[in-house]
Amino acid sequence: MRLSGLLRYLALIFAVATTWLFIREYINFNMKTFRLPRWMGSAHKNSSQLEKNKCGLSKSCPDNFFAFKIVSGAANVVGPTMCFEDQTIMSPVKNNVGRGLNIVLVDGTTGAVLTQKSFDMYSGDASLLTKFLKEISEDMLVLVASYDDPGTKMNDEIRKLFSNLGSTHAKQLGFRDSWVFLGAQNLKSKSPFEQFLKNNPETNKYDGWPELLELEGCVPRKV
User: Fold this and answer.
1) What are the boundaries of each domain within the chain?
2) Angle value at C-alpha 197, between 121 and 72, nearest 5 degrees
3) Looking at the whole model, is its pTM more than 0.70?
4) For residue 102, which of 219, 213, 217, 198 has the smallest C-alpha distance?
5) pLDDT of residue 188
6) Which of 151, 161, 170, 148 is nearest to 72 (CA)?
7) Separation CA 10–CA 2 (nearest Å)
8) Which own/partner pairs from 202-209 qualify as long-range (CB within 8 Å, at least 24 positions apart)?
9) What is the pLDDT of residue 187?
């Protein structure tokens, strides 16, 4: 009886030990199966730590370049927005935009905002814009965004002044066109920072207006 009892006791211990080993291996297998790969965890961490680029650009600008984003107005409903070096200078939220042409002047060396103004190009005084454009110096950057109607009051002199700033499309800017532009005085060639959409009933996105335009990029600091 003692021998048989001892055998039953040893058999019980063996069964318990075997069961425990099986459970441990099963748990370890499942933990390995469902554990996230290390690279996924690090990728999630890195994405959450990414710094926001200036003005919401898709990539950061190199040294000695300024980040900017210009968004034209949408029809006569939503005004334009202009951002320079992560500073929103004009926008509907700031309530400092107007119908016509919205213009920001920036120091091309320091990036400091010098002034911002809007000019009514539907029923305003075009001579005010002419005077403003003539006073732009070579060390300034010029940011322009249209809203509603930028072209009714345009004349040959204003078109030429914008062309001198590097614009390609100012010469054809008309009633309710969409236009965004960044330029400067005495460029060796036309500015690469410009977008233009003609008011065309067949292609307009809005009822009576073309689609809004977005222009973003990195402009070199003036030396």
Assistant:
1) 1-35, 54-220
2) 60
3) yes
4) 213
5) 79
6) 148
7) 12
8) 206/74, 206/75, 207/75, 208/75, 208/176, 209/74, 209/75, 209/76, 209/148, 209/176, 209/178
9) 84
Among 195, 101, 110, 196, smallest CA distance to 151 is for: 101
Check residue 43 and give left, alpha or beta (phi > 0: left; psi -120 to 50: alpha).
Answer: alpha
* Neighbour-count burial of 202, counting CB atoms closer than 10 A to its CB (0-12 exposed, 13-18 middle, 19+ buried): exposed
Q: Residue 66: count other Cβ atoms within 10 Å of its Cβ.
A: 21
Closest alpha carbon to 136 in 156, 97, 106: 106
How many angstroms from the chain centroid is the CA of residue 15? 67
Provide the token pair at 149. Answer: 């109607």
Tens-binned pLDDT, residue by residue, of the chain (223 aa): 455 555 565 655 655 555 454 444 433 433 333 333 332 333 333 443 346 899 999 999 999 999 999 999 999 999 999 999 999 999 999 999 999 999 999 999 999 999 999 999 999 999 999 999 999 999 999 999 999 999 999 999 999 999 999 999 999 999 999 999 999 998 878 999 999 999 999 999 998 999 999 999 999 998 7
Structure tokens at 216: 């973003």
Q: HSE (CB half, 13 Å, CA atoms) of 72?
A: 28
- Phi, psi values for residue 149, rounded to 5°: -130, 110
